[in-house]
Specification:
Layout: E1 2-6, H1 10-22, E2 27-31, E3 43-45, H2 48-57, H3 59-68, E4 70-72, E5 75-79, E6 82-86, E7 91-95, H4 96-110, E8 113-115, H5 123-127, E9 132-135, H6 142-146, H7 148-151, E10 153-167, E11 174-181, E12 184-194, E13 215-223, H8 224-229, H9 237-247, H10 249-252, E14 265-272, E15 276-277, E16 280-282, H11 297-314, H12 318-348, H13 358-366, H14 374-380, H15 382-392, E17 405-407, E18 410-412, E19 416-418, H16 433-444, E20 449-456, H17 473-489, E21 494-500, H18 511-514, E22 527-528, E23 543-544, H19 547-567, E24 571-576, H20 581-586, H21 601-618, E25 625-630, H22 641-653, E26 658-662, H23 680-690, E27 694-696, H24 703-711, E28 717-720, H25 722-726, H26 730-737
């Protein structure tokens, strides 16, 4: 096999090393346009997991890395002149130049040809005379660009500017420092990558070699507008290094910073729909990027190389090998990119967190990517985590999720909400035995608040014929049966009602008969903000509400709220999300009106606020009222995260006690960024920008995530849907798994015998002694 590698970075070199080591007969050539010692950046961080893979794949490289690594456990978080330290994290780093030197030496030892200062021929040219072409040519990959029609890349440029610099001493911890300047907030990410030299050593110069006291990577980052306001956009490399050294003089002990072909840049996230084209395959930053704040760029490239070499070895043909490589690596990369995106957004929105108490701020920073959690951090640094819990108000032995929350006159005994879930099981709007059992079971399951599905304010406002309503007195009596059960059999559990109107998404089949598909017969007319069908050619075109229609629907909401109060609900939520009627007014994609209710965001808010005010006026003053919004439409031209903050601000000003922050479902061509707790950053932003209580939703499934989100100050309540379908007693089981048996999660008396995890079979039994110990006597 003849192999060509475009790009002599760590990923390309390591792929060459492994392919050659696995089969010395392979003819492998690497093209690197730079000199051997030319490199950007300074330190490289690798995880223990990645090092374990390297050790197994090539012990010689692993031994060389081990000799060069700097290891440390602590993270220092510096803000306002105060330092908080969290330990037990375990990092390992070395200089990028050292890493390249190790790989160059290994290539030479194995017989891999490396052409330095030599631009590679194009991938198409190389493919004509090589069996495999590995494009490891970085974030600006010319291979990816040349074959964009096949790889179909998406490159997203983000809102911060950053620069890689170095300091000629070794930090004794990973350091995050915040500088609040007259121009705005700036942050420093610093970590050691070279140990202090053991003996006399010349001072470091531009070459990037370590000084006598070691060396550290220093990345300085800030929002684009801050960078420009500070005049850093007009600075060259030396001027930038001097300015940054002055801003972070305390962290550096007054010592200078230096660059290495360093320039301010905006991070770009690279995603490709395909990673291979014929015999050419993308690797590392050419295929994907992940923000530097989780230290994954080189790690991902090295892991790509390992997987690619293994797949080439394991599969009989190259097409099978490249398919297997992508199948193996894509889920890992996508997971890492989701974590990196969460971390990136956290730093972009850093100014919104500066009002948090110091320890909560530090906990928030440490858990920003969602890869470090409350439970994980408690193992790493129990003293730090306990201090954060104390600040939050957790009594001893009480997890954060089991602390109470007061909203107006209602005190919720814990922070778990059974999220509204449409059941499509009503008859003419009446909740029946199913709803009694469904909601009653979840109330017995320990959640602090159980929410109904969207209860429709009129027959015309139903989504499907199976939707519940509050538009007749018979509905009131039926709901009273449910609330009486909850209050009588699950005392301490609150039950809330969500009221809404389907708008243009109504008159459709039951979910399991065809979601969003129109009824085969018996359709009713629809109304909406604008005459736009949900799916043109599929769903009917709604009538645009005129003045009389607006008044009628507003009054239907108020009448439903009166019935909800009479039904005994403890909390009311106004549904302004997911493309239903009120959401349709908020989104510019669904509101094309030219009157006072369309156009600007203030105008689009007008009708939902009128409805809110009408409902608040009849809803009992001591009972809280929340609003669910879609914080993004996940579609170009739709509601943005900035819009969501203003929407939340408006509802809070009108008296909303909390904002329930969901996303999407407004237009059918949305492109959500699914993943674990993927919607919580929107709740986080609203809470910390406005200091209003929020409810976070969206793929929150573990009690560890609930505790983490609460302690970090990203939410006040967590709403879980599917986990409560899987396990109606999710909250009680979460308490048992955390050894909590307090007033925030009491087991109903008839269920107390089941409050311990039952044995699962013979594997739980005590193991017999099968070996002798000690020395037998004669």
């Amino acid at each position: 096999m003849r192999v060509a590698v475009i790009g002599g970075g760590p990923g390309g070199l390591y792929a060459a090393v492994l392919l050659k080591r696995l089969d010395p007969a392979r003819d492998i050539t690497v093209w690197e346009r730079n000199a051997p010692d030319d490199t950007f950046g300074f330190g490289v961080v690798l995880s223990d997991e990645t090092l374990g893979g390297i050790e197994h794949a090539d012990p010689a490289v692993h031994r060389a890395l081990q000799r060069a690594f700097v290891r440390w456990d602590d993270i220092d978080i510096v803000r306002g002149g105060h330092t908080l330290t969290s330990g037990g994290h375990g990092f390992a780093a070395l200089g990028r130049r050292t890493l390249l030197r190790i790989l160059h030496d290994r290539c030479e030892e194995l017989g891999v040809r490396v052409h330095f200062r030599t631009p590679a021929p194009t991938a198409a040219e190389l493919a004509g005379r090589h069996d495999l072409v590995i494009a490891a040519d970085g974030v600006n990959s010319s291979t990816r660009t040349a074959h964009a029609g096949v790889f179909r890349p998406r490159v997203t440029t983000h809102r911060c500017r950053y620069i890689w610099l170095a300091a000629d001493f070794a930090f004794d911890a990973f350091r995050f420092e915040i500088a609040e300047t007259e121009h705005g907030v700036m942050q420093l990410h610093g970590y050691p990558f070279e140990r202090p030299a053991p003996g006399p050593h010349p001072p470091a110069g531009h070459s990037g070699e370590p000084g006598e006291t070691g060396a550290s990577t220093v990345i300085v980052e800030m929002r684009e507008e801050v960078w420009r306001a500070a005049g850093l956009d007009a600075c060259d490399e030396q001027q930038s290094a001097e300015r940054c050294a002055k801003i972070f003089a305390e962290a550096l002990g007054g010592r200078p910073l230096r660059g290495n072909n360093s320039a301010w840049t905006a991070f770009r996230t690279v995603v490709n729909e395909r990673w291979s084209h014929g015999s050419t395959v993308l690797l590392g930053d050419a295929a994907h990027t992940a923000h530097f704040s989780i230290g994954s760029g080189t790690k991902l490239a090295v892991e790509d190389a390992l997987a690619l070499a293994a797949c080439v070895e394991e599969h009989p043909t190259l097409p099978e090998a490249l398919t297997a490589y992508e199948a193996e690596r894509r889920p890992v990369v996508e997971s890492t990119q989701r974590a990196a995106a969460a971390s990136l957004r956290w730093f972009e929105d850093l100014p919104t967190y500066l009002g948090q108490p110091p320890r909560q701020f530090a906990f928030n920073l440490l858990t920003r990517s969602r890869r470090v959690t409350h439970d994980n951090l408690r193992l790493r640094d129990p003293a730090f985590t306990r201090a954060v819990e104390d600040d939050f108000g957790c009594p001893p032995g009480t997890p954060p999720m089991f602390t109470p929350l007061r909203l107006r006159g209602l005190t919720l005994r814990n922070r778990v909400v059974v999220s509204p879930m449409d059941m499509y099981s009503a008859t003419d709007g009446d909740p029946g035995d199913f709803h009694l059992v469904h909601l009653g079971a979840r109330a017995l399951g320990g959640a602090g608040l159980v929410m109904t599905e969207m209860v429709c304010v009129s027959a015309q406002g139903r989504i499907t014929p199976g939707c519940t309503g509050l538009y007749t007195d018979a509905h009131t009596a039926a709901w009273r049966r449910v609330t009486d059960f909850v209050h009588g059999q699950a005392p301490g559990t609150a039950i809330g009602v969500q009221i809404g109107h389907s708008g243009r998404k109504g008159s459709t089949r039951l979910m399991w008969e065809g979601i969003d598909q129109p009824l085969p017969d018996g359709n009713w007319p629809l109304v909406a903000a604008s005459p736009l069908p949900y799916r043109p050619g599929v769903n009917q075109t709604p009538h645009q509400l005129d003045r009389a229609g607006l008044t009628l629907v507003r009054d239907q909401f108020a009448a439903a709220a009166r019935r909800a109060a009479d039904s005994g609900f403890d909390l009311l939520e106004l549904h302004c999300a997911h493309g239903y009627l009120l959401s349709g007014f908020l989104s510019p994609l669904t509101n094309h009106r030219t009157d006072a209710y369309g156009g600007s965001l203030a105008n689009r808010l007008r009708y939902p606020l009128e409805v809110f005010d009408a409902v608040r006026a009849v809803w009992p003053d001591d009972r809280p009222m929340t609003v669910r919004i879609s914080a993004t439409d996940w579609a170009a031209g739709g509601t943005t995260a900035d819009d969501a903050v203003e929407i939340a601000r408006a509802f809070a000003a009108h008296g909303a006690d909390a904002i329930d922050v969901s996303t999407g479902q407004v237009v059918p061509d949305e492109r959500p960024e699914y993943g674990r707790s993927y919607q919580t950053p929107y709740a986080d932003r609203i809470r910390n920008a406005l200091r209003v209580p929020v409810i976070a939703v969206g793929a929150i499934s573990s009690w560890d995530d609930v505790n983490s989100l609460l302690l970090a100050g990203r939410t006040d309540l967590c709403a879980l849907a599917r986990p409560h379908l899987y396990d109606p007693h999710w909250t009680l089981h979460a308490a048992a798994e955390q050894n909590y048996a307090g007033p925030a999660a009491p087991w109903p008396a008839p269920y107390r015998a089941g409050s311990r995890t039952p044995p699962t079979g013979r594997t739980d039994a005590p193991k017999p002694r099968l070996t002798l110990t000690g020395t037998p006597r004669p």
